[in-house]
Amino acid sequence: MKKYLILLLTMFCLFSYAKETKITIRAKAKDAKFIGSSLGGAYVIIRNKINNTILAEGKTSGSTGNTDLIMKAPKHRESSIADDTTGKFLATLHIDEPTFVSIEVFSPFNHKQAQAKVSTEIWVIPGKDILGDGIILEIPGFIIDILKPRTHQYIGLNSISGKPFQIQANIVMMCGCVIDKGGVWDSDKFETKAIINKDGKLISETSLSLISTNLFEGSVSISSPGNYEIFVYAFDPKTGNTGVDKINYVIY
Questions:
Q1: Separation between Cα atoms, residue 227 and residue 250, nearest integer Å
Q2: DSSP assignment of 123-152, as one string?
Q3: How far apart are alpha carbons 214 and 176 in whole angstroms?
Q4: Quick one: residue 99, left, alpha or beta (phi over 0 = left, psi -120 to 50 = alpha)?
Q5: Rg (CA), the chain
Q6: What's this model's pTM, rounded to 2 decimal places?
Q7: H or E segment to which residue 4 belongs
Q8: Across-strand partners of 180?
Q9: Could you tell me which of 222, 248, 232, 226 has the C-alpha nearest to residue 165?
Q10: Which of 36, 217, 239, 242 is 20 to 30 A from residue 139's alpha carbon, by CA?
């Protein structure tokens, strides 16, 4: 009984000295908006750098933010690009001394083929909250889903002989923001292409064009059976932002 009492007193002393410290973490898509609930959130892990202990973890939630404020308004030193509804993860740490932490963000959490890990390291002081816009980590890339052909689809050569072989992909910004002709994220300013390999060798490359919001399409000629692989990429030459999806299919 005495042993348990000492243990309880020790734990009480530890927690009584620890101060509650709050940190706002946000994930922002490169050249776009914040990652929130509409995309399933970004996953955040905060660790003590000394012993790798997880101090807090969870997903960002909230809106993608105000488009005009984020993308169009002039930026000044103390200007904010987030409001109370903008996607965030509010971490509450219990620390009793200045602690050096790592912050890792995995995003988009629900789209593994496009997922990127971004991290930073900071000192956190007990009782000194980091709120407002908080700590913003930039997530590079595009979310690309190849729709046609389907993954590991078997396609008879007779069914496509003499016809254009259609390639379709859905492409969005890493926040889920739409890509459209003449929009804030203008499809005409991005390079979107498909690269086709057969049995491990490059055989074709073709541009994809926007046919409706987020949906890109192109076609190639296929004249022989084999094991095929398609890369679809989006590239913004102005920012260097790049995204890729890849699938395999079989022509028999």
A1: 5
A2: EE-TT--EEEEEEEEEE--EEEEEEESPTT
A3: 10
A4: beta
A5: 24
A6: 0.89
A7: helix 2-17
A8: 186
A9: 222
A10: 217
Q: Which amino acid is at 152?
A: H
CB 50 within 8 Å of CB 95? no
Mean pLDDT of 217-229: 97
Contact predicate 124/22, CB 8 Å: no
Dmax (CA) for the chain in angstroms is 86
- How far is 139 from 161, CA to CA, in rounded Å? 42
Q: What was the pLDDT predicted at 1?
A: 58
Question: Is beta strand 165-173 parallel, antiparallel or unpaired with respect to 19-29?
Answer: unpaired
Q: Name the strand (E) or helix (H) holding 184.
A: none
**What is the H or E stretch that residue 194 is in?**
strand 191-198
Report how far residue 92's alpha carbon sits from residue 23's, in angstroms, rounded to the nearest whole number.
7
**Which residues partner with 56 through β-bridges?**
46
pLDDT category of residue 8 using cuts at 50, 70 and 90: low
Which residue is associated with the tokens 């971490």? 91
Q: What are phi and psi of 76, to 5 degrees?
A: -115, 170
Torsion, Cα of 64, 68, 70, 76 (10° steps): -150
